[in-house]
């Protein structure tokens, strides 16, 4: 296929398309349509807990969970309550993989809506899920984990706090607050996190 019009979610790939298709002037930056469907309310500050242990949430996507298992198995997580949130499309496979290969005690989050657990956890680990980018914008204590044995779905860069080893992961989990480049993430991957992408899309289409 040879599209006549391109609509981009974020500035990073908008700039890439402009360089690739230099003669095409119909390349537009509109933001994310997906986030407009999200009706949940994730809080900037976490809810207080009764437990003395820190809560570590592992947000799994379709193919990233093996990196989590390999790297976190080498970490000291004795002070953490670990919750694994599998992707709905790979739920059974993810749970099976963790039960067989993960050496730490953990529980499974079976809810479709992650708002409650996100609001109550202290640290979040992710790999490929776009929800991780959204939580980075919200300045949550979140970082990405990749192991070199497995091929990442997205670029491994320094835009997002990333652990490529157990040592790096342990250091993040010792930080009281993990610094996020929230403005850069918003610009590169969402353009504007304002839930108005559909309005921009409609406005552009009405001009053709």
Question: Summary?
Answer:
The chain is an alpha/beta fold and 208 residues long.
Summary tags:
single chain; 208 residues; alpha/beta; 6-stranded parallel beta sheet; two-stranded parallel sheet; 8 helices; elongated
Secondary-structure-derived class = alpha/beta
Number of DSSP E strands: 8
> Regions with pLDDT < 50 over 5+ consecutive residues?
none
Order of helices and strands: EHEEHEHEHEHEEHHH
Sequence of strands across the biggest β-sheet: 5-4-3-6-7-8
Which radius of gyration do the C-alpha atoms yield?
Answer: 19 Å
The helix fraction, in percent, is 25-40%
User: Which overall shape is indicated by the principal axes computed on the Cα atoms?
Assistant: elongated
Percent strand equals: 5-15%
The end-to-end distance, rounded to whole angstroms, is 20 Å
- Determine the mean pLDDT: 89
Largest sheet: 6 strands, parallel
Tally of helical runs: 8
Helices and strands in order, then pairings?
Blueprint: E1 6-8, H1 11-20, E2 27-29, E3 54-59, H2 65-72, E4 80-85, H3 91-101, E5 106-108, H4 115-120, E6 123-126, H5 130-137, E7 142-145, E8 162-163, H6 166-174, H7 182-190, H8 197-205
Helix pairs in contact: 2-3, 5-7
